[in-house]
Specification:
Blueprint: E1 24-27, E2 34-35, E3 38-39, H1 43-53, E4 57-61, H2 68-77, E5 87-89, H3 90-101, E6 107-111, H4 114-122, E7 126-127, E8 134-137, H5 145-156, E9 160-163, E10 169-172, E11 175-178, H6 180-191, E12 196-197, H7 203-213, E13 220-224, H8 227-236, E14 240-244, E15 261-263, H9 266-275
Parallel strand pairs: 1-4, 1-13, 4-5, 6-7, 6-8, 8-9, 9-12, 13-14, 14-15
Antiparallel strand pairs: 2-3, 10-11
Helix pairs in contact: 1-9, 5-6
Length: 283
């Protein structure tokens, strides 16, 4: 059922989402907390509310262009009290999956940010385009034809093709921008090979978040702005899922993927949750 869609009338009057059944929260970042440099409505107040109620949270992002410490610094600058253990990135999940599949010292080729390359080398992998057994692709705003050619040739020669995430677009203040999925599509068009994805909607990201929260999936709420990654992935992993309309997906996109609740933004969700506050509980 859908709760609070303000952009278009709902076909019925569903019951409000019951926040009293939630013990932990997973939040996406881009499109939920911020759009580029723009902080979105209700963000600091929502986290103060969670802290007052003793509800744990984790920030989980498909964007692999920054490392955990960079995300902690960004969140802290916006008044979000967060530590390293409360951030899960698709880059982290990729590094952990490589560790399960490949020995340290395995040569790899990385398309992505310097932070992603550093993360993988810190885990013991060697960036070696001449002998790479794995091609790892994350968001790269400096993606070039030469990088496409190198990755394609390696994959055609037998290297495994791994994508940190498949988001086709990113929300920006002036509209959508190409995401990592657009880069993956170019490489797939050259090679005919589909990447093995690590971030949402794949289960690994949600399992990592739940491990940190120590809450059961059915009592954990995922808050995201993308139906195809945040909402679909959370529901497959057994979590409840709320869509906010401050990022990529709009109310008109709700169809085959139906969130448990829909709100204009995190501020609207916070207002709805606060309204269910029992008398005498901290606000």
């Amino acid at each position: 059922m859908i709760d609070q869609i303000n952009h278009s009338p709902a076909p019925c009057s569903p019951a409000p989402f019951d926040f009293r059944a939630i013990d932990g929260v997973v939040l996406d970042m881009d499109g939920v907390l911020w759009r580029s440099a723009e902080i979105l409505p209700g963000v600091p107040d929502f986290f103060l509310f969670l802290r007052a109620r003793g509800i744990p949270f984790v920030l989980a992002t498909n964007n692999s262009s920054r490392n955990v410490q960079e995300y902690v610094a960004r969140a802290s600058s916006l008044g979000i009290p967060v530590g390293d253990e409360q951030v899960v990135t698709s880059g982290q999940v990729t590094a952990e999956e490589l560790a399960r599949s490949y020995l340290r010292g395995t040569p790899i080729y990385v398309i992505g940010s310097e932070s992603l390359a550093n993360l993988l080398t810190e885990h013991g992998y060697v960036v070696d385009p001449g002998h790479a057994r794995v091609v790892v692709v994350g968001l790269d705003v400096k993606f070039t034809y030469e990088k496409l050619r190198t990755a394609g040739r390696l994959i055609l020669a037998g290297a495994e093709f791994i994508g940190t995430n498949g988001d086709r677009t990113l929300p920006m203040p002036d509209g959508l921008a190409p995401g990592n999925g657009s880069i993956l599509a170019a490489i797939q068009a050259m090679t005919g090979c589909a990447p093995r994805l690590m971030g949402k909607p794949e289960a690994a990201m949600f399992h990592a978040a739940l491990k940190r929260l120590k809450t059961p999936p059915e009592r954990t709420l995922m808050i995201g702005d993308r139906l195809d990654t945040d909402i679909a992935g959370a529901q497959r992993a057994g979590l409840r899922a709320a869509l906010v309309l401050s990022g990529v997906s709009g109310a008109g996109d709700v169809g085959s993927i139906v969130p448990d609740a829909v709100y204009d933004d995190l501020g609207a969700l916070y207002t709805a949750w606060k309204s269910q506050q029992a008398p005498g509980q901290p606000m």
